């Protein structure tokens, strides 16, 4: 009965949101793919899912979008090294996440995650019949979790986090959340604070442990790596260029970065600006913004300079999955989504490369990482476009300060690594021992 009540709630929400979804689909192309998998749970049928044939273990990972997909890299690599016979399925919610997952993990079966209707999740689980289901960070879909539990499939949370805001919200429905959390076999959290919040919400303490953040383990710290070197060549950067990157940005953060660049380029003629919008739907919009300001523009996807006659155009990274490598070009890195209400983006990648890291005050999605960086003088907060300009100017002038900030950030990241080993150990312990077939 509970599942059908949720179905009714979901259908009501879908009806209310359908005009927006249709509009977004028509305008941006989003939400057009995977509806059979999402709404009906018609995922591909896994070979030997019925139990016939050899007992090949299957682990089903669910990662919502690009960020979660990318952080899985070290876990999947280590798991494959430990147990190469394991078949890995990876589900995502967004089309962008699906594209990145297929490109980055060709060895995995990539599918869309079923919407949390009883028929969709039941059908999906029956078709895949995984040996183990793994949720990344925190995805509490009641019908899916109940169906996994009823099917007798172990369920594990990895890289779990629980923000203060989410904690306050979940606490209002604690009985429901507690019943969901009790269905997990293991819960691996990023920090002791997150673990304590989950236990207070009803997670069994003996099944909840601190494994750390996998994000630290997957970080590249070598600026000479081939992907970064390829981007340096593609953008025509010279050895003496100093690079400001505004990455994972939302409007109006690109405009603020352009203002900074315009204000400082005469004083610092070796300064280059790279813009990396968060969403691919805005690539063309940002390109038009750059050209409207009178700058010439070099787009990564095109490889040719548009507009203007500047010998040092503004650079636009308008491809997917390359931001991680691009941060390796930065002397100063502004991490976007932090002067807007999004809650910040991943500031660990530029930190690992030893860039002088800046972000706005709205970083609640990465609160613990931010606290760690700030407490070790490894980053700085800017509260406005004017403050961004002043801070970048100070760092360009005081190169010793910029270098100290970058070294502090890189050393901090390297000291945090090790979560992948703990996470994979937890997964292997939760994975059922395969029963021999006759």
Strand content: 15-25%
Structural class: alpha/beta
Low-pLDDT segments, ≥5 res: none
**What's the alpha carbon Rg, rounded to whole Å?**
23 Å
What proportion of the residues is helical, as a percent range?
40-55%
The oligomeric state is: single chain
Instruction: Report the sheet with the most strands, covering strand number, pairing sense and barrel closure.
Output: 8 strands, mixed
Number of helices: 20
- Spatial order of the strands forming the largest sheet: 11-10-12-9-8-13-14-15
CATH architecture of the largest domain: 3-Layer(aba) Sandwich
CATH class assignment of the largest domain: Alpha Beta
Give your account of this protein's structure.
With 438 residues, the protein is α/β, with parallel strands linked by helices. The chain has 2 domains: 32-218 and 419-430, 3-Layer(aba) Sandwich (Rossmann fold); 226-416, Rossmann fold. It is built from 20 helices and 15 strands. The chain has helices at 2-28, 35-40, 66-71, 73-82, 95-104, 118-128, 142-150, 164-171, 174-181, 192-200, 214-217, 226-235, 253-264, 283-292, 323-326, 348-352, 367-375, 385-397, 399-416, 419-430; strands spanning 58-62, 87-92, 109-112, 132-136, 155-160, 186-189, 208-210, 242-249, 271-277, 297-299, 305-306, 314-316, 332-335, 356-359, 379-381. The protein is globular. It starts with a helix and ends in an 8-residue tail after the last helix.
């Amino acid at each position: 009965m509970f599942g059908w009540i949720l179905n009714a709630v979901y259908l009501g929400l879908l009806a209310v949101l359908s005009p927006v979804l249709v509009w977004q689909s028509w305008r941006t192309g989003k939400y057009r793919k995977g509806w059979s998998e999402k709404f009906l749970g018609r995922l591909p049928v896994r070979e030997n899912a019925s139990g016939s044939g050899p007992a090949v273990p299957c682990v089903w990972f669910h990662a919502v979008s690009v960020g979660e997909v990318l952080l899985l890299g070290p876990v999947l690599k280590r798991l494959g090294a430990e147990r190469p016979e394991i078949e890995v399925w990876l589900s995502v919610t967004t089309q962008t996440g699906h594209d990145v997952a297929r490109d980055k993990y060709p060895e995995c079966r990539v599918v869309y995650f079923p919407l949390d209707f009883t028929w969709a999740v039941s059908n999906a689980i029956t078709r895949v019949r995984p040996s183990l289901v793994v949720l990344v960070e925190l995805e509490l879909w009641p019908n899916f979790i109940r169906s996994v539990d009823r099917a007798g499939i172990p369920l594990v949370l990895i890289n779990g986090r629980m923000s203060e805001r989410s904690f306050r919200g979940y606490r209002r429905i604690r009985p429901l959340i507690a019943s969901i959390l009790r269905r997990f076999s293991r819960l691996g959290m990023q920090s002791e604070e997150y673990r304590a919040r989950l236990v207070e919400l009803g997670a069994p303490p003996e099944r909840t442990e601190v494994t750390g953040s996998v994000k630290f383990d997957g970080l590249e710290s070598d600026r000479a790596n081939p992907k970064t070197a390829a981007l340096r060549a593609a953008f025509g950067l010279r050895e003496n260029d100093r690079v400001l990157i505004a990455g994972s940005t939302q409007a109006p953060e690109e405009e603020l970065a352009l203002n900074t660049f315009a204000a400082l380029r005469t004083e610092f003629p070796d300064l280059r600006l790279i813009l990396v919008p968060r969403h691919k739907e805005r690539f063309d919009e940002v390109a038009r913004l750059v050209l409207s300001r009178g700058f010439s523009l070099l787009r990564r996807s095109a490889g040719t300079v548009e507009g203007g006659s500047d010998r040092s155009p503004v650079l636009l990274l308008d491809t997917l999955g390359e931001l991680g490598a691009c941060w390796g070009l930065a002397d100063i890195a502004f991490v976007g989504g932090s002067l807007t209400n999004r809650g910040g983006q991943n500031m660990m990648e530029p930190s690992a490369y030893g860039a002088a890291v800046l972000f706005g005050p709205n970083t609640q999605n990465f609160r613990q990482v931010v606290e760690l960086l700030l407490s070790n003088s490894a980053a700085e907060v800017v509260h406005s476009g004017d403050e961004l300009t002043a801070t970048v100017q100070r760092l360009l002038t005081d190169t010793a300060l910029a270098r100290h900030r970058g070294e502090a950030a890189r050393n901090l990241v390297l000291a945090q690594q090790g979560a992948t080993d703990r996470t994979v150990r937890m997964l292997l312990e939760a994975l059922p021992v395969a029963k021999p077939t006759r």
